[in-house]
């Protein structure tokens, strides 16, 4: 399996309200006020030697906004349906711990206390494990939380 080749959403849909505090990108002076962000999909690789994977989450990092969040399937039943060859309870626990690291939750251990850029690098570092991330991709958005929702809908829920 592989991630879809579809391009990630760049901005909010036409007609959607701007997020609170966002400057209008259409103000006439040509300035682009969108935020640059990086994202990666989170994959379960049940048999690492085969390199097949199932996408179960997305992590978004907007450095200039200090934003780092991950959204993943953490319901064991949903994980079991998508990846029957793994321990769904254990996988859900690992995914929740990655979400906690991204959120900066101090109970997630020392890495959760690092700056957002370091945590993003830790999450997206190449590893030969059942839980991996895709290569990092870039995008522009008005609101990183909106981008996370759209990416999750495009890569995981679809």
CA-based shape: globular
Can you count the beta strands? 5
Mean model confidence by pLDDT: 86
User: What characterizes the major β-sheet?
Assistant: 5 strands, antiparallel
Radius of gyration: 16 Å
Order of helices and strands: EEEHHHEEH
Percent of residues in helices comes to 25-40%
> How many distinct domains?
1
Poorly predicted ranges (pLDDT <50, ≥5 residues)? 1-7, 12-27
Question: What distance separates the N and C termini?
Answer: 14 Å
Structural class: alpha+beta
Key terms:
globular, 158 residues, 5 strands, single chain
Protein described:
Helices cover 29% and strands 21% of the residues. It is an alpha+beta fold. It has one domain (35-157). Strands 1, 2, 3, 4 and 5 form a five-stranded antiparallel sheet that branches. Helix 1 packs across helix 2 (88-103). The two termini are 14 Å apart. The relative contact order is 0.26.
Summarize this structure briefly.
The protein is of the alpha+beta class and 158 residues long. Helix content is 29%, strand content 21%. It has helices spanning 76-82, 88-103, 116-124, 144-157; strands at 35-44, 54-62, 67-72, 131-133, 137-141.
């Amino acid at each position: 399996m592989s991630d879809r080749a579809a391009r990630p959403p760049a901005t909010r849909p036409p007609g959607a309200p701007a997020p609170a505090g966002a400057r209008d990108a259409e103000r006439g002076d040509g300035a682009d006020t969108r935020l640059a962000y990086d994202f990666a999909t989170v994959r379960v690789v049940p048999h690492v030697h085969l390199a097949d994977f199932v996408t179960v989450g997305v992590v978004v990092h907007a450095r200039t906004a200090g934003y780092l969040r991950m959204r993943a399937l953490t319901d064991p039943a949903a994980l079991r349906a998508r990846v029957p060859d793994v321990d769904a309870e254990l996988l859900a626990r690992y995914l929740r711990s990655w979400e906690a690291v991204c959120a900066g939750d101090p109970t997630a251990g020392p890495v959760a206390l690092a700056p957002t850029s370091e945590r993003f690098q830790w999450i997206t570092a190449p590893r030969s494990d059942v839980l991996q991330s895709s290569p990092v991709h870039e995008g522009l958005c008005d609101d990183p939380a909106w981008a996370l929702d759209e990416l999750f809908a495009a890569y995981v829920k679809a």
